[in-house]
Structures
1.
Amino acid sequence: EADIYQTPRYLVIGTGKKITLECSQTMGHDKMYWYQQDPGMELHLIHYSYGVNSTEKGDLSSESTVSRIRTEHFPLTLESARPSHTSQYLCASSERAPRGESTDTQYFGPGTRLTVL
Amino acid sequence: KNQVEQSPQSLIILEGKNCTLQCNYTVSPFSNLRWYKQDTGRGPVSLTIMTFSENTKSNGRYTATLDADTKQSSLHITASQLSDSASYICVVSDRGSTLGRLYFGRGTQLTVWP
């Protein structure tokens, strides 16, 4: 079981509210990721980070922002939530791949299911 | 365009039966292929990982195969259990960037009935 946590697990809020989804990992991983997943659809990368003070946008455009002040935390913020933001948000982390391997295994948190009314 | 296609979209089997899930991909250059299991309301958990040179990998009752020439993979589940009910996601990684970009399939939703 991966030591990566997300809170809240479920969130129902009204349009226009500011929200922050928390993600933390205790594995000391440098890389962290945020994915968005709609029911029956594939995961889409929206943000990633190589380490402290490093953040990059992913493949899917998102109005959310992220920060990486500490290695173990990678919170995602929506300044003004809208119904189109309703989705499941998954956080993941990975360590540097062992020598000779090209990519590392990502460990996922349980996700936050966000509903914006 | 890099894509990962999975079939069937959903599958219902009886407990104790075997089943095979399919994954076709067009990701290039290919690095590795993973199968993940995602329980409802949970994050995906890695089952197997295969690189270009590997054509089969087992993890308990799960056996994954890879044909890098035809760009196909399968996940075989033996003697299914109720706890196998989940979405199984095929994930392919490329070698085109430092990030090792992951391409996700939409998953096969497996339901095991008693």
Note: The longest strand of chain A covers residues 87-94.
2.
Amino acid sequence: DQQVKQNSPSLSVQEGRISILNCDYTNSMFDYFLWYKKYPAEGPTFLISISSIKDKNEDGRFTVFLNKSAKHLSLHIVPSQPGDSAVYFCAASELAGGTSYGKLTFGQGTILTVHP
Amino acid sequence: KAGVTQTPRYLIKTRGQQVTLSCSPISGHRSVSWYQQTPGQGLQFLFEYFSETQRNKGNFPGRFSGRQFSNSRSEMNVSTLELGDSALYLCASRGTSGARVDEQYFGPGTRLTVT
């Protein structure tokens, strides 16, 4: 049972354009969402996060949108740069309460390629 | 501030052997989580330690175990290795200003190959 899904295995975008990465979740107990970027042979790097009490969070070129009713979130990268080419993971955590400590549930990842 | 460090970076073991991986969290971080990454299953949570206590455990067999020391460094151990244990093992640490997960910061991982 995959509780966090990234349905697009890959995305190809031209430099300077917008990249939109999508993520869906099924567990209504999730209340905190994160995006990570990963290069080969390295650990995931934290990018941006959003709490369920918000619907948008922005940090420079990165914006995350959350639609709780649709159980959907997306990461927008504007403008996209070749250095953004990596695997992007969506992750979620449940409400604190004993079973959620330190646990992130990850999607399968989307490979983003930004062409010069 | 130094990031999360993991040793060794690469390891080759034979089926039936055991292995111990080490993780040093970011200075001041007391929570350490471990994840397994495989092509088929993606990133899966193994367990989390805080103040030398395991607070949460994922759905892995008892062959996977861990511990945390008083300086917050953590080790994970896999006994009786199987071919399917070949994976990238990632350690993540986070600050603990509250009971929330918040952002976890990952190390580079240990690539374990079981032959």
Note: Chain B touches chain A at residues 4, 6, 31-33, 35, 42-45, 47-50, 55-56, 58, 90, 92, 94, 99-109, 111 (CB under 8 Å).
